[in-house]
Amino acid sequence: MSDFTVELRIAQKGEVKTVQEEAVRYLGYKKIEPDRLILDLIDECSEELLECVQARACFAEVPLKILGENTVDIGFGAVHSRNLYNHLKNCRSVILFAATIGIGADRLIAKYNRIKPVKGVIIDALGSSAIEYWCDKAEQEITQNEEKHCSRFSAGYGDFSLEHQKDFVRCLDLTRKLGITLSDSLLMTPTKSVTAVIGLGAESRTCSNKCMTCSNVNCIYRE
What we know:
Number of helices: 7
Largest sheet: 4 strands, antiparallel
Shape: elongated
Order of helices and strands: EHHEEEEHEHHHHEEE
CATH class: Alpha Beta
Radius of gyration: 18 Å
CATH topology: NADH Oxidase
CATH architecture: 3-Layer(aba) Sandwich
Mean pLDDT: 90
Number of strands: 9
Number of domains: 1
Strand content: 15-25%
Low-confidence stretches: 217-222
Helix content: 25-40%
């Protein structure tokens, strides 16, 4: 753990929502409109998912230190990343952020993957939309006094190494606070969880389209 002051935010019942349009995009429909049967099934799955959501978020603001070209310190020590450096270079500080909708979503997905795979796939997509909704809501609250801030930037984006997931878990005490653990391949459990850096400062900027910060231009989920 670190010496950071880490704040915790627990969602109230009904506060987290799914976004049908986002779920449809995650399902790969793109410009094709799903039929009424699929839309009704999405609504049914959404109700079931939201019953088991236990969303939490935690965060800590830390100074940003520019250590050199393409190297920053965001509370972990030196992080070598051209993409992260360019994203944060005009900021004064950063927020280390993490959020999850809880293990209940994983259990529900696993249940339906066994007995009705189509519902498992739909609930997986809805879970992805729900964690994004919860992250957006929590981020808006955290940055409400900031005139400008950078969009979330996660380990695994561009050349910001996924290895830094370990630093998020350690610095934010995520296993104790949010129940988040890492696999040997650095994937998080619960799977519908996010870690990210948010840059703060008068010269930073808000980017409303997350896909604009991602270098994977061939992603099938790209907006």
